[in-house]
């Protein structure tokens, strides 16, 4: 199989490329920079074929994909800065990337009749209640611009294609890029205490573990919507921070606060980000390891 992967300069795309190589598939990487600009860790992605592509440019998307003729596109590129996406002068660009960019790719996949994987987010839901969201639930109500544009991307995929996987993930951490764990490790260098919200509940996702599942998926025809995070239960960002510091051996004190007390975020975020992953097992897919185990491996990886 030949697989075209967008967003390889980011967290997930990097790991997807390396998982493909492990399984003897040809991964062709892509991102917006002229050459591969992710971490130089001597892994497959750093030397694999790389094609620069701005996904908001419809003609470029068409001509690149027509030339490559992939069997599958794994679309990881996105605008992921949630608070920044709320700025009035950024919204057009956020939508161009997350919604129109995804539509461009979906339409090119349609022409080629190839499979498409679209990575989406818990932020398409409004976060009300405590019941975990099912992947086929259609009660979308994003609370912020990032979530709204990711939902528009989902719809562009599901309305144009039949051979698609829409995989919603949450609270992502990976070697290659910015994430909550790295932020918290940095905060600990300069602060004795940190305030962290304890009323937003979800589960983290390690890109290394998720990549294995995504490659398992593309080997099948079990199309549709899925939820995928690590196992290990539902937690708050406060719980996550406590465990990050415990495992890293850091003494910084973590103070639980409500979202209202925290008060620093521009974008509204869902309180209930519990994703129901039972559809994975029902379709014979192997679940991810626990987030506690993933965190331990990740801290070793980045030390
Ligand atoms: N990070 C998270 O917590 C979560 C992420 N997701 C989803 O998972 C996927 C992967 O996320 P993650 O790996 O963290 O993302 P990253 O932000 O790490 O990587 C995204 C990549 O896409 C690139 N990109 C941005 N605009 C364009 C463009 N116009 N054309 C081509 N490439 C572009 C970015 O480049 P540049 O940096 O230069 O802008 C970046 O390299 C995304 O779809 C995201 O929405 C879902 C849930 C949680
Ligand atoms: C840095 C910091 C954040 N927080 C809060 C803010 C927020 O509510 C929560 C998480 O913070 P972040 O801004 O890192 O997370 P955020 O960027 O909102 O993370 C989201 O990213 C997008 C891309 C997704 O798709 C989501 O699944 C989710 O991972 O923690 C604290 O309470 N204390 C702190 O010191």
UniProtKB/TrEMBL annotation:
Catalytic activity: dTDP-beta-L-rhamnose + NADP(+) = dTDP-4-dehydro-beta-L-rhamnose + NADPH + H(+)
Functional description taken from the UniProt entry: Catalyzes the reduction of dTDP-6-deoxy-L-lyxo-4-hexulose to yield dTDP-L-rhamnose.
EC number: 1.1.1.133
Pathway annotation: Carbohydrate biosynthesis; dTDP-L-rhamnose biosynthesis
Family annotation (CDD domains): dTDP_HR_like_SDR_e
Stored NCBIfam families: rmlD
Annotated coiled-coil segments of the chain: none
Top-level class of the enzyme under EC nomenclature: oxidoreductase
Protein's name according to its UniProt entry: dTDP-4-dehydrorhamnose reductase
